[in-house]
Amino acid sequence: MEIIKVKDYEAMSEEACAFLVERINRFENPVLGLATGSTPEGLYKRIIEKYNQNEVSFKQVKSFNLDEYVGLEKEDPNSYYYFMKDKLFDHVDITLDNVRVPNGVAADLKEECETHEAAMKAAGGIDIQLLGIGANGHIGFNEPGTPFTSTTHVVDLDESTIEANSRFFNSIEEVPTQAISMGIDTIMRSKEILLLVSGENKAEALAKLINGEVTEDVPASVLQNHANVTVIADEAALSVINGK
Ligand SMILES: O=P(O)(O)OC[C@H]1O[C@](O)(CO)[C@@H](O)[C@@H]1O
Question: Where are its TM segments located (predicted)?
Answer without folding.
Answer: none
